[in-house]
């Protein structure tokens, strides 16, 4: 029988289902918590709003601070759930079948290709950012985002391409190092467009995936996925392009599984994963706002109780295990963060 929210079984984290020729490590279960998970509680409503701003705009000092946060995460003991190693593992565990549905050990929890895609990644980044803030000793620190949807952001930011930086990952496609312009609907084939044409093409892709093809929650978010269902019922527009395509564009096509960014199990090992996903998260909010501004009640989030009650497990900045529901992450204001510093130029790029 199927129905009800997807709930992760915290006692069952097993062997991930890895592709052939995967790179070590081969396990991705986060450390066991000595205590039961606590339920998520919202930050103080009077806490300052943390504004995430684009990498290309925040300046060198801010990016150096972000690099320091990542270096501090990398320096934590690997058994610490807040370490960079374990943060990457969380993503691996949620997309390789290491985690199972509560009461249904035969069914994996898969947070891609369904309506769990946006809320899972929002919660994941929320805790990543809180951990970074704690390690920096700056509770109001906001992570920068990689705004590949606006012309100024359509390259890998140079800070991530500097081999001496903690933000660097050598396992990427060397052809796509800066100044290569991103290809938002990349499918493993080089378009070889001149930059101007590629930029225009990218703006069209954005319009198509955010507006033309996404007038309903099932089209934007992805298909319903309930307890007892098989994984991957269907992805939303933005998950496929530009989300998946930018993973594939960044990863190393010469490796069997296009590591690190181009395959689920290793994507979180690349520090660019997090600013990439902050942009995805920003696009979710943009989609809702565009719908609301048009008074279009269909272009809005699901209200399905199974979606709202689905839940995930994360470690917070104090290394406490927390259960977060989809309902908890719907309002960025209540999470005390927002996005700024960049517009939506593709809104006028209707093909
Ligand atoms: Cu969980 Cu960008 O993938």
From TrEMBL:
Cofactor(s) this protein cannot do without: Cu(2+)
Record text on cofactor binding: Binds 2 copper ions per subunit.
Domain of life: Eukaryota
Residue ranges of every copy of the Tyrosinase copper-binding domain listed in the record: 112-129, 270-281
Record: residues binding Cu cation A: 91, 112, 121
GO BP annotations, alphabetical order: pigment biosynthetic process
Crosslinked positions (2'-(S-cysteinyl)-histidine (Cys-His)): 95-112
Any one Gene Ontology molecular-function term assigned to this protein's record: catechol oxidase activity
Disulfide pattern: 13-29, 28-92
Keywords: Copper, Disulfide bond, Metal-binding, Oxidoreductase, Signal, Thioether bond
Residue ranges of the TM segments: none
Annotated residues for binding of Cu cation B: 243, 247, 277
Family recorded in the similarity comment: Belongs to the tyrosinase family.
This protein's name: Tyrosinase copper-binding domain-containing protein
Species the sequence originates in: Eleusine coracana subsp. coracana
């Amino acid at each position: 029988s199927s129905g009800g929210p997807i709930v992760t079984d915290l006692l069952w984290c097993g062997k991930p289902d890895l592709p052939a020729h995967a790179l070590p490590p081969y396990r991705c279960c986060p450390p066991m918590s000595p205590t039961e998970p606590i339920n998520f509680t919202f930050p103080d409503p009077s806490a300052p709003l943390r504004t995430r701003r684009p990498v290309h705009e925040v300046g060198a000092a801010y990016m150096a601070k972000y690099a320091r946060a990542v270096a501090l995460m990398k320096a934590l003991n690997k058994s610490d759930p807040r370490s960079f190693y374990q943060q990457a593992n969380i993503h691996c565990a949620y997309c390789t079948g290491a985690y199972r549905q509560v009461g249904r050990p035969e069914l994996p929890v898969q947070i891609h290709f369904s309506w769990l895609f946006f809320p899972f990644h929002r919660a994941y980044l929320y805790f990543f950012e809180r951990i970074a803030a704690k390690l920096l000793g700056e509770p109001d620190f906001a992570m920068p985002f990689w705004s590949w949807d606006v012309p100024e952001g359509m390259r890998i930011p140079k800070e991530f391409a500097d081999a001496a930086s903690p933000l660097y990952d050598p396992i990427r496609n060397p052809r796509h190092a800066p100044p290569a312009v991103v290809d938002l609907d990349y499918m493993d084939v080089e378009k070889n467009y001149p930059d101007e044409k590629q930029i225009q093409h990218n703006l069209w892709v954005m319009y198509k995936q955010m507006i033309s093809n996404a007038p309903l929650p099932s089209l934007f978010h992805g298909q319903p996925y309930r307890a007892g269902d098989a994984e991957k019922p269907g992805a939303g527009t933005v998950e496929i392009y530009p989300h998946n395509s930018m993973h594939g564009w960044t990863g190393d096509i010469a490796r069997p599984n296009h590591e690190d960014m181009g395959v689920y199990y290793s994507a979180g090992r690349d520090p660019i994963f997090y600013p990439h996903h902050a942009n995805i998260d920003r696009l979710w909010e943009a989609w809702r706002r565009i719908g609301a501004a048009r008074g279009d009640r269909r272009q809005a989030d699901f209200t399905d109780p199974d979606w709202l009650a689905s839940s995930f497990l994360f470690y917070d900045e104090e290394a406490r295990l927390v259960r977060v529901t989809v309902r908890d992450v719907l309002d960025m204001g209540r999470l005390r963060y927002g996005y700024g510093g960049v517009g939506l130029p593709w809104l006028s790029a209707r093909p």
